[in-house]
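In this notation, each integer encodes one residue's backbone shape. One such record reads:

___
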Amino acid sequence: MKKLLLPALLLSSFLHAGNETVLKEKPSIYATMQCAGIQWNIEGDSNNNAACAVEFREKGTVEWKKAMDLFRAGAVTPDKGSLETARGWKNHMSVYVEEHWKLNYLAGSIFNLKDGTEYEVKVSLKDPDGGGAQEVLSVKTRSYPILPDLKSSKITDVYPVTRGALRKAVLAAKDRDVLLVHAGTYDGNFRVLAPITIMAAGDGEVIIEGSMKHGSEELERGVDFCVPGAMLYGITLKGFPYALHLMPGADRTSIMRCKLIGNHYSIEVKSGENYIADNYIEGDNIPADGNNDGEGIETHAGVGQVICFNKITRVADPMSIETPNSDVFGNDSFSSSDDGIETDDSGPNLRIFNNRFYSCLHNGMSFQPYLGGPVYFIRNQVAGFRENYFKDRYLSNGAIFINNTFLNNTKGSLINHVYSRNNIYSCWAGPLDYHDVGPINQGYDLDYDCFASKMRVTAGDFFDDIDQEKHGIVVKKENLFAADWDIVAPPAVISPAPMFELKDGCPAIDAGVEIPNITDGFAGKAPDMGAIEKGLPLPVYGPRK
């Protein structure tokens, strides 16, 4: 095998210094409820060998805990032809690529923090060629939203006695009012203009119903949120072209325990720091049709989205997340007509963990494009796609894959500049495709992964010229999982939903490597490979009880 060498003489025209790192600003930090994202913009370091260690502690405690080092982003330098190709697209992707190829930074995340808690974070940047610094940052995690105390709130009971009853109550409500909506059917197409709570009273299903007219000029909406701090709880919305729209400025909106049935676009987000949790979303698409229009949850703006424990089906893309420093976890998506989740046009510190994506018509995870990184993909189950587990488009780069289970009957392909540990990759249709050594690929870091294969090979043999997977293993398909399993090509639904637990005696048990702040609490001598750790409780996907 040939050793992968970083092309040190390939200098970016966007950098203003040589191999030494130049620091012109302090690192930034931003926290959600249980994660914190760090970004340190730099100049120089043209050979991409700057590194930054991360430690953290709860404020008031003594011991520092180690997190993963920051990811060296901005480390993929396009050749002239690739850049000209991107400019030739002349669409939103051209703008995104142009902007993100100019960026030069290190970034990364801390996981498993307590909500509503203050932390100190120490970052120590060093460059062997010169330059570096140490900074101590302070950050406080957000608290999870909770329902208002009804005993101390101003409550208005709403009944479906006249047309427009809910709309009139919403328009009349003042700050912090609670609308208790009683069982029945209401019309929608109204705006929330105050930070109020709209919640089901608990005496039966509350339905806000639209009149979907495919192919017409009608753009009827269910509910538009227009101000910060509103909450929707326990409501069903049916039959809208656009069911819920979180408009610019509607930050920290909470959508909890709602049902969205038969809408074309279910939740569209154009504000920041929203909480979308424990909802059931069933769109109006027929998965076999391959329609790529009509989304489950789509975020276009802001930072800090927290999207968790939702169950999503019969849409094009269950989730399209364009917002950096966001958390996507505990979700269950299946039987959809495009991709499992899209990271397209997103930014640093997008964290996708503990989800299950299965039986989508095209790809598991879409990069179309994603540039810079890191996007974290941790402990996800990804199974059953007509194409690949990754959609690799437009020179995408900058991903971290840890402890995922990727299963498919077709070949998979890696984007550029990937860090991979403790994953299971199905490779019985052939080895993973990857970008050869050249100006676009300036580094893979792949090791301690498991490859399910029929071929008599070693894990390193899958990467002929880049000398990876020194501790990787190859396991026969029949020796991997506890239950009999097969991957059914969509649009057939995998039933029951898969839980890929490792079989007793599987070589992937205890064959992984410890990763600080990520694999804490493993059950055996070392972390297992794959999404489910043998001996620990099974994960929860979809709405919690």
Observations:
- Residues 1-17 have pLDDT under 50 and may be disordered.
